Amino acid sequence: MASEIHKARPDLNAACHAHSVYGKAFSCFGRPLEMIYQDALRFYNDLAVYPRYGGTVISTEEGARIAKTLGNCRSIILQNHGMITCGATVDEAAFLFIALDRCCHAQMLANAASGPGWEKILIGKEEAEFTHKKSGNSGKMWLAFQPYFDQVAKTEPDVFE
């Protein structure tokens, strides 16, 4: 998958892929996040959904289809599988992965709580575009990852040896 994404998107130098608990649980719905809270706006018009599960991805053809579906986005939910986030730096891709996993969790909590009298209210297009522009750029993603990096460096310094 990663090699096909790199071929299609030379601007992306890093990709994170895993089957996180919340990512794979949310992926079974085969749909994007709803723009219902500020953190989700990092993914406004920047999150694709790959709508088919073709089994374990071992072919370049499947990787190419995933890369094509990713398009100009940095993140993609793979239906019934998990998710991939990409960035110009490892830090950006890693922070987007952490953020997307948390957003999947929050989305499922909101979905579980909704019902009569508890309808979700979507954030408007103008507000979503403004917030994404201010908080969703590569530099902000890199910066947002630094506390995670510092924590690992402090608590597990041997990982850098």
UniProtKB/TrEMBL annotation:
A family per Pfam: Aldolase_II
UniProt GO molecular function: actin filament binding
InterPro entries on file: Aldolase-II_Adducin_sf, Aldolase_II/adducin_N, Aldolase_II/adducin_N_sf
GO CC terms: cytoskeleton
Highest taxon in the source lineage: Eukaryota
Domain Class II aldolase/adducin N-terminal: 1-108
Signal sequence, renumbered to the chain: none
Protein name (database record): Class II aldolase/adducin N-terminal domain-containing protein
Lineage start: Eukaryota, Fungi, Dikarya, Ascomycota, Pezizomycotina
